[in-house]
Design goal:
This protein has four helices and no strands. The protein is an all-alpha fold and about 80 residues long.
Length: about 80
């Protein structure tokens, strides 16, 4: 399972609890209404738990979490430097 697929699984099962939720890699998660600010915080917490990392406040910027593709890129970079 790729990082992107894992993020979608987390969104469907843990955050939104909606197995019918559909999103592609480039869908803006905030303006599309898929996530609100609380759901985004829960997603960050779930990512930290899943990947055993701590995301520093300086990395909590919209560019890193706007869509699945940017989350995947951010995590790939973070895990590579771990």
């Amino acid at each position: 399972m790729t990082i992107g697929e894992e993020i979608i699984r987390i969104l469907k099962q843990d955050i939104l609890q909606d197995d019918d939720f559909e999103v592609d890699l480039e869908t803006d998660l905030l303006t599309s209404g898929a996530l609100d600010s609380m759901a985004l915080i829960r997603l960050v917490a779930a990512i930290e738990t899943q990947y055993e990392i701590k995301i520093p406040p300086t990395d909590l910027v919209i560019e890193n979490f706007i869509n699945i593709q940017s989350i995947e890129q951010y995590l790939s970079n973070t895990l590579a430097s771990k």
